[in-house]
TrEMBL record:
<keyword id="KW-0862">Zinc</keyword>
<keyword id="KW-0732">Signal</keyword>
<keyword id="KW-0121">Carboxypeptidase</keyword>
<protein>
    <recommendedName>
        <fullName>Carboxypeptidase Q</fullName>
    </recommendedName>
</protein>
<comment type="subunit">
    <text>Homodimer. The monomeric form is inactive while the homodimer is active.</text>
</comment>
<keyword id="KW-0378">Hydrolase</keyword>
<keyword id="KW-0458">Lysosome</keyword>
<keyword id="KW-0865">Zymogen</keyword>
<dbReference type="InterPro" id="IPR007484">
    <property type="entry name" value="Peptidase_M28"/>
</dbReference>
<feature type="domain" description="Peptidase M28">
    <location>
        <begin position="259"/>
        <end position="440"/>
    </location>
</feature>
<feature type="signal peptide">
    <location>
        <begin position="1"/>
        <end position="20"/>
    </location>
</feature>
<keyword id="KW-0645">Protease</keyword>
<dbReference type="InterPro" id="IPR039866">
    <property type="entry name" value="CPQ"/>
</dbReference>
<keyword id="KW-0482">Metalloprotease</keyword>
<keyword id="KW-0964">Secreted</keyword>
<keyword id="KW-0333">Golgi apparatus</keyword>
<keyword id="KW-0325">Glycoprotein</keyword>
Amino acid sequence: MKKKYSFITTLLLSATLSQAQTADSVVVKKLYDATLSHGQSYEWLRQLTTQIGGRLAGSANAAKAVQWGKSVLEQAGADRVFLQDVMVPHWERGAKEEAYIVVGKQKITVPLLALGGSIATPKKGIQAEVIEVQNFQELRALGKEKCEGKIIFFNRPMDPTKINTFEAYGGAGDQRRSGANEASKVGAIGVIIRSLSNTLNDYPHTGSMQYATGVPLIPAGAISTNAAELLSKTLKENPKTQFFFKQNCETLDDAPSHNVVAEIKGSEKPDEYIVVGGHLDSWDVAQGAHDDGTGIAQSMEVLRLFKELGIRPKRTIRIVLFMNEENGNRGGIKYAELAKQNNEKHIFALESDSGGFTPKGFGIQGAAASVLEKIQGYKSLFAPYGLHEIERGGGGVDIGPLGPQGTVLIGFKPDSQRYFEYHHASNDKFDTVNQRELELGAASMASLVYLLDKYGL
């Protein structure tokens, strides 16, 4: 008799789970249908990128983006929209940079962008012989004897064998972040780096760098990958080749700015929070479409979809448009500080900051094995939409400061193969984003939020 009851219980449980999964699949399909048929993310992205454009923290465009985001979220039907004050770095590029490869009397113009946070060159620019290196170890081995008074050229490319291009980016990023410090220690007067891109093109890619305390400051810029190839070839043919560059950037006093926060109030557990967001700022040289206009538009679409379909979440969902991810992460830090100060319980945070390409899955950070297994249990619901990669991975820079508070961090993962063609470069424009890919990502994010809110962690 005991075995019979056990068998019946198993059958009932199986039937219940099947019914629940069927009901969930209906809601997930509704989310995809709604955004693919009449979504707003693509139009919002168009407004942000073409009407406002590049929006580096501290700039007038960043301030415009804050007001735009607040207005759009109010119109989308948020229960509450508010701004969080945050002081951000204020760095300006100034007049367009100039750069040449100099061989004797010949000058070959190459594209260059100052790295974010760099100092300017002297007004007339700087010109010196070039020392090409692949890494810091090679530079240190050369020492002051060979490097003093020279311009150091870091020419280590992103590893083309890495299928996950973010892994390749991470492997090459130290030369951008700290190259100026290491070059300064051996007496160099300037540093240029090969742009962090896995394609050969004529677009230099900017990005942030930081100066170390106690090290003389030297100017730092990035040249395009094609220019890096040409400079390396020229140096092999003529080791006395010189390089000239001029940049006019400056760092001003910190400026006031804001995170934009919109809420759908939870119906059962309003004091538990789910964060969905991306970063509102972008580099100044383009429209900031894939980085991170797409993440902003997708996050706002999550709110709109819940409202349109009448989905009442159990927990409070917050859409957060973070400010200053690119050169300081002040917005992410401030959000986490306020969350701790207000004793807010954040269950999980989902970030979209990897471009608007075809969705592939989610990377999960800070979750216990049982939680990861639970999220992976939704694979069958996501499979019809091409999301198969639900595994451990990075959450995101903006939501990272919530991690120490016990928040599970989730990063939306689109296909990464094309991202570094546009990342931090002047070709990161609205017309490089495919509407359907963008909308599929928004629906994927909304579906995960729906499931995790309904069943918890």
